[in-house]
Amino acid sequence: MLYNQYIKKILLRRNKMSKPLIVITGASSGFGAEIAKLFNADGFPILLLGRRTDKIKALPLDFTNVLVESVDVTDKKSFEIAISKAEEKYGKTDLLVNNAGVMLLGNVLNQDPAEWKQMMDTNVLGVLNGMQIVLPQMVERQGGTVINMSSLAGKKTFTNHAAYVASKFGVHGLSETVREEVSAKNVRISLVAPGAAETELLTHVTDKSALNDYNLWKESMGGTTLASERVAQTVKFIYDMPQSVNIREIDIAATNQNA
Ligand code: NDP
Which InterPro entries does the UniProt entry name for this protein (predicted)? Predict the structure, then answer.
């Protein structure tokens, strides 16, 4: 343990950085953008990934120690190249926030299977891709953290969410499995399971009737949903615990969310 801390210190000094590298996927909007703002304000070097880099570059950040790369998380090669580039500059990734995700509401009776595939590829395989890229060095140096963005839909069901629920139950399942596998190596795997929040998530839904039902449900609770900043604070809180403490999961939702 002491030896690892010593090595970490040397590496950080060599990179002339006081804080280690944080990688955030899906940083162009919603939760990811807020998580980026918090770590940026706290002086961490960060690698921000997403397909719409123009949106990431327009975020109100101090870009001195920010790298932005256009990465589709379903493309493991480009994901890996982006992380390698950042690690050359800032040292090994100490936190990966696997936040990128997509929610395409729809009923299995008539939803286009291409939408199921997009959710599985992004929400499940994208997360596995990220974990496989950063975990070997974390296991090797016996330190590091991965926080996966799941959902309350990763532990309970919601109408018109079948494929999304399947993908997020997948995130819960794989996170706990990998946590068990790497816990003895002092690597933390954690997840955040938010309830309904105001982001761009719903803008990709193509099924008008499913979207309408979702909006009616939100209105029935008074329309209040969770602010993205609260989810970002939750991620930061998990990371800021000592490495010897792993908050395995936090479920967070607006108080008035009834499901
Ligand atoms: P947004 O739509 O605002 O953000 C989603 C982010 O994911 C965007 O930055 C988008 O970037 C990125 N993304 C999507 N597909 C890909 C891809 N293939 N490769 C790389 N990046 C991708 O939604 P949220 O902020 O709400 O979503 C963030 C996470 O939170 C998701 O995993 C979502 O499932 C989860 N969540 C959201 C809830 C909500 O109510 N908002 C509730 C519970 C969980 P770009 O398009 O630029 O690539």
Answer: NAD(P)-bd_dom_sf (IPR036291), Sc_DH/Rdtase_CS (IPR020904), SDR_fam (IPR002347)
What is the pTM (predicted TM-score) of this model? 0.94
Q: Whose CA is nearest to atom 2 of ligand 1?
A: 201
Which of these is catalytic: 6, 90, 164, 214?
164
Atom of ligand 1 nearest to the CA of 72: 19
- Could you tell me the distance, in angstroms and rounded to a whole number, from the CA of residue 101 to the centre of ligand 1? 4
* Strand 93-98, strand 145-149: pairing: parallel
First to last CA, the chain: 43
Which of the four pLDDT bands, split at 50, 70 and 90, describes residue 2? Answer: low
CATH assignment, 2-252: 3.40.50.720
Q: Domain coordinates of the chain in residue numbers?
A: 2-252
Task: Render pLDDT for 41-67 as a digit per residue (tens, 0 to 9).
Answer: 999 999 999 999 999 999 999 999 999
